[in-house]
């Protein structure tokens, strides 16, 4: 039985598969309200729960404004000193981005735990109840912003969805990454695009991003962060137009290394003005770049501090 000394956890719900049921047409959509997602998990985890429904959407549709709504809901929850921690129930498609945005703005000692599910709430073998139970337990036990799935957790910075259907959905392939703490900022989010590199690529996609009004571009390079001479020239044009360019790699693990040159390698891209993202992959690199631009912070310094 819950008592006043039982930890109080705020559960922020946003929709996603964990809040979804399958309709008569065989298509799933987020239909469940916040309270229905917790069920018996609070009593089983030995915590009290307060539910806040921030959103009810498919996470693939989330904008940075939507993700900031989640950040705001978490900060509002932690304004109550009686709250021991926060759990965010989130769709898995963009969970890694929201988790990192939370991490960039989390300066509280209390934990924030994100979880979701790979199977809908009405699936006969749904992973939702077990993940909610574990996340509630973790929110009274761990520190920092973490992603909890299948009885384990990884820290937000560097985490990525590793499989489309397996229940052990998230991993941090490069281990824990250094934290960057940014001040809260107001105003509109800048447009930041992600461009995936491929062998023989020209500069058209980067030029199109600049023409569309991007203030930042994340270039997902090949190997350790390489491209072509045409892409190097497009990066230089983007930088001349005042657009920040950050270089990542499409390889699942390992850092960007600006060591190859003379033909479009990482050294050439860096010389043209691209900022290496280190071990941060494209999705979270986009979040950091957008947050730095929104805050008016130095992009190169922000990524160097991240490590």
From TrEMBL:
Query: What Pfam families does this protein's entry cite?
Result: Asparaginase, Asparaginase_C
Single GO MF descriptor: asparaginase activity
Show the active-site residues.
17
Q: Which SUPFAM superfamilies match?
A: Glutaminase/Asparaginase
Q: What organism does the UniProt record list as the source?
A: Kineococcus endophyticus
Domain annotation Asparaginase/glutaminase C-terminal: ranges: 191-301
Cross-referenced PANTHER family: 60 KDA LYSOPHOSPHOLIPASE, L-ASPARAGINASE
Its protein name is asparaginase
Q: Which UniProt keywords apply?
A: Hydrolase
Family, per entry: Belongs to the asparaginase 1 family.
Q: Say yes or no: keyword Hydrolase present.
A: yes
Q: Per the database record, which ranges form the L-asparaginase N-terminal domain?
A: 9-176
Which top-rank group of organisms is this from? Bacteria
């Amino acid at each position: 039985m819950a008592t006043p000394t039982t930890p109080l956890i705020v559960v922020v719900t946003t929709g996603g598969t964990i809040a979804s049921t399958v309709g008569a047409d065989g298509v799933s959509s987020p239909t469940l309200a916040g309270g229905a997602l917790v069920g018996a998990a609070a009593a089983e985890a030995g915590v009290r729960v307060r539910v806040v429904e921030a959103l009810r959407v498919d996470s693939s549709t989330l904008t940075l404004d939507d993700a900031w709504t989640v950040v705001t809901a978490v900060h509002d929850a932690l304004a109550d000193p009686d709250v021991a921690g926060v759990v965010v129930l989130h769709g898995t498609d963009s969970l890694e981005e929201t988790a990192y945005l939370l991490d960039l703005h989390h300066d509280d000692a209390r934990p924030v735990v994100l979880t979701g599910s790979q199977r809908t709430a009405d699936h006969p073998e749904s992973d939702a109840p077990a993940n909610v139970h574990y996340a509630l337990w973790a929110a009274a036990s761990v520190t920092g912003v973490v992603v909890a799935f299948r009885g384990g957790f990884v820290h937000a910075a560097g985490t990525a969805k590793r499989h489309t259907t397996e229940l052990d959905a998230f991993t941090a392939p490069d281990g824990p990454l250094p934290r960057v703490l940014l001040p809260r900022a107001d105003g509109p989010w800048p447009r930041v695009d992600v461009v995936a590199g491929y062998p023989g690529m020209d500069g058209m996609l980067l030029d199109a991003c600049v023409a569309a009004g991007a203030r930042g571009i994340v270039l997902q390079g090949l190997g350790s962060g390489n491209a072509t001479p045409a892409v190097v020239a497009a990066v230089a044009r983007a930088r001349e137009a005042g657009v920040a360019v950050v270089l990542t790699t499409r390889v699942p693990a390992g850092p960007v290394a600006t060591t190859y040159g003379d033909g479009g390698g990482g050294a050439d891209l860096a010389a043209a003005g691209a900022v290496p993202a280190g071990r941060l992959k494209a999705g979270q690199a986009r979040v950091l770049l957008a947050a730095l631009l929104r805050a008016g912070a130095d992009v190169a310094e922000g990524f160097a501090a991240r490590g």
